[in-house]
Amino acid sequence: MLKTSIGCTYPLGNAVCEKGVNFAVYAPNAEQVILCLFDDQANTEIARMEMNKREGGLWTLFVESIGEGALYGYRVDGLYDPGEGFFFNKNKLLLDPYCKDFRGDFTWSERHYCHLPVGEFNSHDNAIDMPKSRVFTPKVYEGKKPDIAWHDSFIYECHVKGATQTLIGLSKEKQGTFLGICDSGFIEHLKSMGVTAIELLPVHAFISEQFLTTKGLQNYWGYNTLSFFVPHKAYCVNGNVTEFQKMVATLHEHNIEVIIDVVYNHTAESGIDGPMLSMKGLHNRGYYRMLHTPESVYINDTGCGNTINIDDPITLRLILDSLRYWVEYMGVDGFRFDLATILGRTNDGFHGQHAFFQAISQDPVLSQVKLIAEPWDVGPGGYQLGAFPPPWREWNDKYRDIVRRFWRGDSGTLPELAKRIHGSNDLFEHNLRGPLNSINFLTSHDGFSLADWVSYENKHNDANGEHNRDGHSENYSFNCGVEGETVDPEIINRRKRQQTNALVTLFMSKGVPMICAGTELNHTQKGNNNAYCQDNENSWLNWHNLDSPQILKASITSLMKIRSKLSVFKHPFYVHADDNRFAVLWYNSAGQIMSESDWHDELNKTLIYILADNEKRSAVLVILHADCDGAEIQLPESPFSTSWEVAYSSLDIDIEADQPLNSFRLTGQSAWVLLSHNEETANGSEKV
To answer: Which domain of life, per UniProt (predicted)?
Structure first.
């Protein structure tokens, strides 16, 4: 028999020391907590030991003569009263919320359910269908982090599996894994475009919802978290979670940061009819936000069945501990918070000074990493774009939508388009933030790919098994004359040009640019704008497209090179009329400053602007012409020279270097980037 003692209350989870392992878990309303040990194969329960109730709702136990790799789980007994939000049931094996690794697979079965009357499934033991928590001591990350400034950042959002599942030259065992992401070929692909940060879709261990598995589908994106500490095991070769560290270290060696998409707004335990897997069986009324009259009902501000209760101090501690773990031990450089409004919501609504934001702001670790909010959820007052505190950045969907509408040819878009290009000062300047607080994007994992934006006017989500009812209905998309695939060369060329036009807008806008993986490869999802359950070729990148003349990699590379040389995109503040160094100027097609009537001419679909740095005597002139018809324009006078030189055009033409231009005819639906030749450096090669 194993020898035990009372144990320590810190840290939560498991901790290995010289004589054994300490276990600590929070379950304030439980009557009994049992530590269960399992054999090395995670199949047979070999010991049950009662834990010791301690002050503050903690339970502890120190077990001698066991160590690294020991497998365990918790069983918790107490009041069973669903109406009051209590589901204690010692027949259900629970995953430790603080475990850093586990072994075994999760399998759906009726044994996980706890909401049915006693005597039905509540009495069934679910251990056979549950992964077992594993005693694991991680090593502190020791790699050197790139620490890239926001003004130099270019984010590439991608899915671990989808990015490398078909990567040419990658061994089969590494396809779709963390080790695939740090493959030299993939890294070189990123670096060649100028990418500085990779933003990975959820890498926390997750499971697929039962309604998907019954249809033969899987949760591909991963927004259904099982553990806040364990890397998703399917992305590890042989389940080795240390491969995540290796991936991060390798990317860091190549000066690429790692941002991870985190889901702290809900868990895979869903609502009252969901499974009991971990937190629901330990402290259901604390970990989840609930209405208590007339009975305990889960608040569902996520649309996923439950909502994390960030107001509970233990829940807040869990999330902060998880965030610090991924920074200090796994080495990540930042986070993108899914449905981040929930993290600032109390019973009274969203607050920019919520305890969560304050805790991060004063934390010496978390205050120094990149923090990106998805500033909306489906709850009341859920849309909070621009309301997050410094130093948070936010996904700017208003930027996405207006750029799409402009290039679709919608009327009356110029005033808002100019605001978004200028960095959305109307959204961020009120609380002392600048243009670099806006994450500008055209597409993300959620919605049409950039190729589908110009190929489909309607969503085609039938493969999701929901009769095409899921996904957004308004995508501000257009098909260039044919819905879906075509062999018409004119339509194919137009689609490429329109994608390129949007990319010119993206890289010539103030803010932080982000593209979705596959943009550069002309990736299509066949019109599916909600491919969350499509773990197949529809979602995986097709690397054979590298040979296609329709890919946009060269365009992205060229635009990022131009952007990186211009100081106007590095300036952290908004430019106003009294700025002595920087200038933002808007012009009409006659080369004159835009008048009030020009701005409100709904038929005007041409935007011309100059971004200039008077100190460095450099300027960029951008022309965005969304009209289908061509137009004769007069270029505004160059501030530092007698003419402009074309640096980039969305037209598939050769541009003669050093060809001075003062006026020319615009081709319909085209975008141009021109640079002002700096006469002070005329004898050298530098032009900006």
So the answer is: Bacteria
Return the closest-CA partner of residue 421 out of 446, 401, 444, 440. Answer: 440
Going by pLDDT thresholds of 50, 70 and 90, the confidence category of residue 119 is low
Q: Where are the alpha helices (DSSP H) in 214-351?
A: 242-253, 280-287, 313-328
Catalytic, 338? Answer yes
Q: Is 376 exposed, middle or buried (0-12, 13-18, 19+ CB in 10 A)?
A: middle
Q: Residue 130 CA to chain centroid, in angstroms?
A: 28
Helix (H) / strand (E) containing 498? helix 489-507
683 confidence band (pLDDT: 50, 70, 90): very low
% of the chain at pLDDT higher than 70: 96
User: pTM of the entire structure?
Assistant: 0.96
**How far apart (Å, rounded) are the C-alpha atoms in residues 521 and 181?**
17
3-class state of residue 608 by DSSP = strand
pLDDT for residue 118: 55
* Of 45, 96, 338, 416, catalytic: 338
What is the enclosing helix (H) or strand (E) of 404?
Answer: helix 397-408
- Out of 129, 257, 301, 374, which one is annotated catalytic? 374
Dist CA 647 CA 559 (whole Å): 9
> What is the signed CA dihedral for 680, 681, 687, 688, rounded to 10 degrees?
-60
Element (DSSP H or E) covering residue 355 = helix 355-362
Confirm if 60 and 191 have CB atoms less than 8 A apart: no
Distance between CA atoms of residues 351 and 373, nearest Å: 14
Ordered by where they begin, the domains of the chain are 4-134 (2.60.40.10), 152-269+323-448+490-564 (3.20.20.80), 576-681 (2.60.40.1180)
Q: Band of the pLDDT at 592, cuts 50, 70, 90?
A: very high
Radius of gyration of the chain (CA): 27
* pLDDT tens, residue by residue, 396-420: 999 999 999 999 999 999 999 999 9
Confidence (pLDDT) at 679: 41
User: What is the DSSP pairing of strand 606-613 with strand 618-625?
Assistant: antiparallel
Q: Which residue has the tokens 């399992």?
A: 38
Q: Please tell me the predicted confidence (pLDDT) of residue 293.
A: 77
Per the annotation, the verdict on 377 as an active-site residue is no
Helices (H), 518-626: 553-564, 596-599
Residue 393 clears pLDDT 60, i.e. is over it: yes
